[in-house]
Structures are given as structure tokens and as C-alpha cells.
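Project standup — Tuesday

K.O.: blocked on the structure for the chain from last sprint. Re-posting the sequence here as requested.
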Amino acid sequence: MKIGIDIDDTISDSIERWIYYADKFEEENPNVVKEKITKFQLQNSHNYLEEFYKWDERDKEIFFNKYSNSMLKTVKIKENASSVINKLKEEGHKIYIVTSRFKICDNSDAENITINWLKNYGVQYDKIYFNASNTKLQICKEESIKLFIDDNYEVCKTMINNDIKALKMNSKYNNINDDTIPRVNNWKEVYNKIQQM
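H.V.: unblocked you, prediction finished:
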């Protein structure tokens, strides 16, 4: 089976790292507007940094120029992600990494950092797509992907509405209850759900 997989908060534990750097940025820059909402109000949002911190465009540009590479390099992989993905590949599944990551600012090296990050964690895959925030469905259709794994509710719902199976990686930031989308809490559950398909 062809399986598409998102990176941030699906293969990696990204949100905690993003928040760490965003808080650090605000401490270093007292003039940044601080209009935080509570973290648990982010349940429906994939753009949690924008909604959580309420920065203007200038602040976002400064933040990403300073920290985007560090965030991507230091984010940790989810437990068992590499071993499960590699086992699926060994069993004959085709693995497509489909990520929204892109060159977010002049200083960004998102593609090279991501490829090296996956290599350093030993994640095997057949193909990788970048800058796919609005094209995940199109990529899945073009590649005949049959299952997509993502933390984003809207992406999973779109896949299911287009006859592509989806698994939504659970987190405390995406607590939308929808019985039409199977939820998984970890990569062992991902593997077990795939075995049942």
C-alpha cells in the first residue's frame, strides 16, 4: 500500500519545540505584542503559532529568520516513528513524506535540514514532497496514495471525503472528536491500525 505521512506533530514532536522558541523570542524582544490565548484553544488550528502568539508580520519574519533552522534541527522524533515506518517499508509499503515545510524566510534551509533530520533518525522513505500545505490531496491522488497519516483534522477529513483512508495523530492540541476519522496516539497504534486494514 502507498502511505503518505506528514512530519510535524506526526513523525516529530514539533509543537513543544516551536513553543519553546516562541517563548524565548518573546523574552528576548519585549516590544513583541503579547496577546496569547490559552494553548488548549488551539484545538482546531494547524497554524498554532500564528493564533497563539498573535504576532504581526514583522515579528514573524524576525522570529523565523532567527529560529526556523534551529527549530527544525532540534525537534525530536516521536517514539517508535522510525522503527514503525521502516517496518512498514520492509513489509512492502511505499512511504511518501508529504510536508508543509518550506523555505519560510531568507535564512531558512528547511529542505536540507529535513532530509538530514530524517536520515539522522534513520527514517526510510520512497519520496518526499515539500511546501505541500495546500496540495496534500493533489499529491495523494497523483501518487495513488491509499492512506494518509497527519495530525491536522482538516487534512484527514479532506482525505476521507476523497476516498483516501486517514489516521489522525492525536495530540492535546487537536482534540476534535469525529468518529469518521480514526485517531491514533502513537506509532504502535499506527502499525496496528494498518495491520487491520
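K.O.: great, moving the ticket to review. Residues 57-74 form the longest helix (18 residues). The helical segments are 14-28, 48-53, 57-74, 81-90, 110-120, 136-143, 153-161, 187-195.
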